[in-house]
Amino acid sequence: MKQTTNSIxxxxxxxxxxxxxxxxxxxxxKVVDGLLPATVNAKAQQEFDAFVEKLTAVGVDVTVVDDTxxxxxxxxxxxxxxxxxxxxxxxxxxxxxxxxxxxxxxxxILDILEDKGxxxxxxxxxxxxEEDGFFLEGTGSLLLDRANAKAYCALxxxxxEELFIEFCxxxxxxxxxxxxxxxxxxxxxxxYHTNVMMCLGETFAVICADCIDDKKERKMVLENLKxxxxxxxxxxxxxxxxxxxxxxxxxxANDKRYLVMSAAAHQSLTPKQIEQLEKHAEILxxxxxxxxxxxxxxxxxxxxxIFLPKN
Length: 311
Fold this sequence. Notes:
Layout: E1 7-12, H1 37-57, E2 61-66, E3 83-85, E4 90-93, H2 107-115, E5 122-125, H3 138-141, E6 142-145, E7 150-154, H4 161-171, E8 174-178, E9 181-184, E10 187-190, E11 198-200, E12 204-207, H5 215-227, E13 231-234, H6 237-241, E14 248-251, E15 257-262, H7 263-268, H8 271-278, E16 282-286, H9 289-295, E17 304-306
Parallel strand pairs: 1-2, 4-5, 7-8, 12-13, 15-16
Antiparallel strand pairs: 1-17, 3-4, 6-7, 9-10, 11-12, 14-15
Helix pairs in contact: 1-9
């Protein structure tokens, strides 16, 4: 199994704004005062287009699908939360915490991918869990070490343990379960998505280990990473708050590896961390300030990796 892919799905926003339904447990979202919704969306579109341009310039195959105005989907720019694609042709659909995010799931996106020659054999649908109030938000909640068949998950209101274990059984992953916290108004609160505190590359892992308050759990997570030969690059909570955990390794032309992150994440890294990371992949960063502030997500969240076989 490959850990990285050359193919990415991205959704271009049409009415991007701060989603009030996700703000209840996404402490990264900020109210941007004095900007009209149309201005926020225009800025997000500019950031999105510049980001896509940088990816395609290095040879990443990006499938861009435009969001629709109806229904109202302010977070559609983060497709990795509702769908994941797998090498055997499986597609997983995930139960979403915010009601207005459930409308992001679109069948026509699967048709677009099939038209591009991707093969979809089977859809594994977990979305009925929403009716019972259980959620698992795709590769936001799940960090997949595809090559070593391990899945890491920081439990939260958006990552249910039983659902996670069910996913691991269905897709043959060994579960690595823990809790991760961030300090919000001097209180420790659960981090909403695993992928803001951790990134898994082929030969390295970026992790804010300080977020795992339970020492045994922290040791267990780090040991799992070491077992699979990953170089561990530790980041601080301050760096995590600049989305330094929200990175994704992708492949460009000639299978060259790139580590994709936002400009804010890149700027937060120390020269030593940059040197460590550049041994594994070339850094590609793009400014996502508006998307990060209003959406509370960053570069990783915007890319749904496509591992499907091709005709």
